[in-house]
Structures are given as C-alpha cells and as structure tokens.
Amino acid sequence: MGYQAAITVRVSQAQSAFGVHKSTLYRWRNEGHIVIHKRGSMSFVDPVEVKNFIMGLGDQMGDHSQEKVNK
Question: What DSSP string runs through 20-67?
C-alpha cells in the first residue's frame, strides 16, 4: 500500500473557500479544532479537516434553522 500525502491549502485559500476570516481559522487552531502547518513564512491547512469541523458545528454556525415542536 502506497503512502498518500494529505492535500493542504494556504490559509488565505481556505478563508476564501469556506467564507471564514483568517483570524477564525487561527482561533480554531488555538482551541485545538484544526491544525495549521507552517512552512517557512507560509501557513497551510487541510481543507477536509476544516470542512469536517465546520460541518460538525451545525447550528452553532447558524446554518441550520431550528425546528420548533408544539406539544
């Protein structure tokens, strides 16, 4: 079985792709939700990791409406 390297993108590309500010990505890193890899002066993230974290936030991001159940 061969080694498959993770695909990473620059933080600036991730902020454009996911619609979040760069400071949000760094906050998520500081909180331990995602990893930011440094290569010299450049910073990279795994877009799958960012997507999985965002998808796991659900209603906390305000992207799902909350259904009200009348009893």
Answer: --HHHHHHHHHTTSS-EEEETTEEEE-HHHHHHHHHHHGGGGT-SPPP
